[in-house]
Design a protein that fits this description.
Blueprint (H helix, E strand, L loop, with lengths): L14 E2 L9 E8 L6 E6 L11 E4 L12 E4 L5 E8 L8 E6 L20 H6 L6
Antiparallel strand pairs: 1-4, 2-3, 3-7, 4-5, 6-7
Length: 135
Amino acid sequence: AAVCQRGTPVRCGQAIRLTHLGTGRNLHSHRFTSPLSGNQEVSAFGEAGEGDYLDDWTVVCSGTYWVRDDEVRFQHTSTDVFLSVTGEQYGRPIHGQKEVHGMATSSQNNYWKVMEGIFMQPSEAFQMEQYHAEL
C-alpha cells in the first residue's frame, strides 16, 4: 500500500509490486492465455508505478527476508500463478525475447535470482534484528 524506502528489507511472504524503471509500468497478470506457451499472460500495466491489485506479487522464499544471492519465486496474489519463463521465444517484433508467463504449479521454471542492480546495505534496525541479546 506504500512505496518502500530504498534499502528496506523485503520479507518472505510480503506482497510487492515490480515496476519497470524505463516505462514506469508494473508487472501485471490476469486470467488471459499467454500467446506462445498457453500459460497465463504476464504483461506491463499502469502509468508511473500506478496500477491495480492485479500488479501484486507475493515473495516466496526461505528464511525471513529475500536475500540477494538466494533464489526466489513470485506468486501472483490474485490468481496464484508463479512468475515463470520456459524458453518460448517471440519471432517479431522482439526477435529472441522469451515469453514471461504465469504457471499454475511451482517448478524450476519459476525460480528467479538477482543478477544486476544496486546492493543496498541493510538499515541499522534490520541488522539489530539478526542478533540475539539474551546473553
